[in-house]
Amino acid sequence: MALEGIKNKLQQIRLEADASAEKVEELTAKVKTLEQENLAKEQEITSLTHKNQTLEAEVEKLDAGHKDMKSQLDQTGHHGSQNEALQRKLQILEEEAEEADKNIRETNDKYRQADVKAGHYERKVQALESARDLWEEKYEDMAKKFAQVKKELEDFQIEIGNI
């Protein structure tokens, strides 16, 4: 009777240890996936930051061109055909500046969203790593209990053999 109880306990501990090992593997795979997603988001942030810098430089260039055109327009205000041409150029530059501003706003929004997502994934990775560590501790405890019960079973078998 006692031998079967120990065997049952030993079998139960084995099953728990196997379940813990599977959970650790599952959580490790999930952490790896989240780390890859986090890396992709960081790369997207870098790309958006570069695009933002490029667009800001373009806006500055367009603003400088806009100022140049305005000053030329003021200087040549007496010449009708030149004045009209400069006004058209000025209008085009203003439209390009508005488009560049719109692109900058969109890029900044995407950058903020990507940054928020990256923070979320970092927190998720930390939580999963904590869960994985907890499962690894449980697995180690179960392995120790398994070894102890196995030792008790062997000792019990030796005692029974001596009787």
Task: Give structural notes.
The protein is 96% helix and 0% strand. The chain has two helices and no strands. The longest helix has 83 residues, at 80-162. The protein starts with a helix and ends with a helix.
Question: Percentage of helical residues?
Answer: over 70%
Helix tally equals: 2
Poorly predicted segments: none
The total beta strand count reads: 0
Question: What would the principal axes of the Cα set say about the shape?
Answer: rod-shaped
**Mean pLDDT level:** 87
- Which series of helices and strands comes N to C? HH
Strand-pairing-aware structural class = mainly alpha
Q: Over all CA atoms, what is the radius of gyration?
A: 35 Å
N-end to C-end Cα span: 16 Å
How is the main sheet built? none
- Measured by DSSP, the beta-strand proportion falls in under 5%
